[in-house]
């Protein structure tokens, strides 16, 4: 069977195909991936120059993310052209596997545990209140963009505080973050040398002025036991952790947009702030920014669900499909901020991935989102959109994100 169907998904050889250049798929990936999921646990993603396979169902997705037959490699990333002296810093922890990945993860993970994130909450609350204090000053004709003046600056301020980027260096990191957030391209490639120099400067400053932060801890590890962490790895970790720390930006913006579009859910959250933690989990599941995971490559010729996958072929997880799989979640297309994760009819979402590459900053992202939503809804009870968020989506097949979020406050 072959031929185009509504929403840009087709079928070839019994495997549904999803055309990621189709405007309808970009506009509503949840429906497109949902149709594919109900036809097969495996879909073919049509991407110009780099087609790949996608696992669509929740249980199968969890299995793939821990399957040793597949690995993340350098080819999993679109690496920009950078000067030769920057290349050693470009191989990040995200593309490492096995013992090498585990060694570095063990060095940074203690700073991102649920307990440490909870202990960091008061500092996050102070940062959130400060950003919200400034929000009205950015209003024009009664409207302010929550993406650019709240959701975007907040995570960068939080991660700089946690990692230990000195105050004097933070304006530069905010600029780097804005460039990276704008997406790949010439501006991104051009920013790489400055980002590397910024990471080197942050390391040097913390070596001279140590503090109570992750970077100071890593500098001590490097200076006291260089076998555990090389100088190149230290610089790489700084820039990767700081720029990856922007992840909550799209989570917070998507969450606010979803709540404004679902007044009953917003009212439930206002009526009972105690449910904010479970609401954050539900919002990550329902409208989290990750649509597709970093692709894995087959180490050998394998078979998935009766389909032969050649050595080196790319396979991703369609998180947008797995997080709305009716086999894992009751009434999965319904946003329900009272949903309790982990109950018999509600599995754990894959918004932070799963397995060895589960997002190391997940606990910090959760706390940020909880604090951000709680404070925003408390301080601005009349919050309302001035432009429907549906018309402000970035045409990005991998990330569900907004170009802006103008609201009245």
UniProtKB/TrEMBL annotation:
Pfam families: p450. It comes from the Bacteria. GO terms for molecular function: heme binding; iron ion binding; monooxygenase activity; oxidoreductase activity, acting on paired donors, with incorporation or reduction of molecular oxygen. Residues 1-21 are annotated as: Disordered. Keywords: Heme, Iron, Metal-binding, Monooxygenase, Oxidoreductase. InterPro entries: Cyt_P450 (IPR001128), Cyt_P450_B (IPR002397), Cyt_P450_CS (IPR017972), Cyt_P450_sf (IPR036396). The keyword Oxidoreductase applies. Belongs to the cytochrome P450 family. PANTHER family: CYTOCHROME P450 YJIB-RELATED, P450, PUTATIVE (EUROFUNG)-RELATED. This is Cytochrome P450. It comes from Streptosporangium sandarakinum. The lineage of its organism: Bacteria, Bacillati, Actinomycetota, Actinomycetes, Streptosporangiales.
